[in-house]
Amino acid sequence: MSHEPQVRIPATYMRGGTSKGVFFRWQDLPDVVQSPGAARDALLLRVIGSPDPYAKHTDGMGGGTSSTSKAVILSRSESHDHDVDYLFGQVAIDKAFVDWSGNCGNLSAAVGPFAISNGLVDTRRIPENGVATVRIWQANIGKTIVSHVPITHGEVQETGDFELDGVTFPAAEVPVEFMDPADGDGALFPTGNRVDDLDVPGLGAIQATMINAGIPTIFVNAKEIGYTGIELQEMINNDAGALARFESIRAAGSVRMGLIAHVDEALNRQHTPKVAFVAKPADYIASSGKSVSAAEVDLLVRAVSMGKLHHAMMGTAAVAIATAAAIPGTLVNHAAGGGDRTSVCFGHPSGTLRVGAQATQVDGEWRVDKVVMSRSARVLMEGWVRVPGDVF
């Protein structure tokens, strides 16, 4: 019996923010994979090592978590006012499924550095020393992201002293701007309300702020679902009942937000929406052992991604947090103390994060011009990934 030899494909393994993933240049992909479809999904699943019933990704590049089962495809932009087109795939761990419905805010920080280092940005836009501004078209959601990449001697500077809770080592700071992060039709609040009563099987009616900014997100009060807001991963992820309740909230919210027609469809849309619970500030010990005091944060937020409590905070969810915090009357704004806000510092399982938002009300409707946060990015490995030739 003969077997196809392995195929090797140029790729880079990168960390961006508190996530990491496999980055590809579109032109380096096999012809059959350059277009969306089953062949592309099959390749990315095999690269990451999914589906894996052991949830370890031992036979792939993934890390067995939602933060590390990610893939990015980049190409020179077809738009004159953008440098690079950015497509993100969230690869399921235990299912043969790639979710293309949203963005990864953390890996967005790695897009600019990768694009510069891999010849996707016009060299005339890159200074010898200083900061290169990379204009990114986020193809999944049709939005602009602007990345400010530090440059030294004409090359991307990756090392530095910027520290990011959830990342072990310091690196160079990469400020990222998410422009007009609301849903494409401008509906920040798809239900028309800043707070709704959401009927959830097994929980009854609970208050929820459902927002489309960065990524569709459902915010609920920690106290209303039996939590304090200082929970760490093991407190949630080792509780099958808790995870099932969060999935029920996500499914019910998905229907109310108009993302799906029936709760059963949520299984085929795992990446979006996210579910997060908020609480007023409190002292706690982060997963690293670091003490976080109530005085240094405006509120506490914990978020669930791909069925598990996130170890820190998804970048796109941070965009949603900043947006909701800037708008009076939301659960997030209330947890942060209310009032008008242009930035917020929130506590998450790994520490703290500050994000800023420019929100305005026009003719009674809220809009957000941009959300800004600082991340970091670093190349971990570059070369080729290999997959069996019969995969696609």
Provide keyphrases for this structure.
21 strands, alpha+beta, globular, 19-stranded mixed sheet
Shape: globular
Helix share bin: 10-25%
Report the average pLDDT across residues.
95
**Main β-sheet description:** 19 strands, mixed
The amount of beta strand, in percent, is 35-45%
**Low-confidence spans: pLDDT under 50, at least 5 residues?**
none
| Structure annotation, total helices | 6
Radius of gyration over all CA atoms, rounded: 20 Å
- The strand count comes to 21
Quote the distance from N terminus to C terminus. 19 Å
Oligomer: single chain
The structure class reads alpha+beta
- Helix and strand sequence: EEHEEEHEEEEEEEHHEEEEEHHEEEE
Overview of the molecule:
Helix 2 (105-117) crosses helix 5 (315-325). Strand 16 and strand 17 (308-309) form a beta hairpin. The protein has a 19-stranded mixed sheet that branches. The chain has a two-stranded antiparallel sheet with strand order 14-15. The mean pLDDT is 95. It contains six helices and 21 strands. Helix content is 16%, strand content 37%. The protein has helices at residues 38-48, 105-117, 233-237, 240-256, 315-325, 331-335; strands at 6-16, 19-25, 70-76, 84-91, 98-99, 130-138, 143-152, 155-156, 174-179, 196-200, 204-213, 215-221, 274-279, 284-285, 291-292, 299-305, 308-309, 343-348, 351-362, 365-375, 377-388. The chain starts with 5 loop residues before the first strand and ends with a strand. By secondary structure, it is α+β, with helices and mostly antiparallel strands.
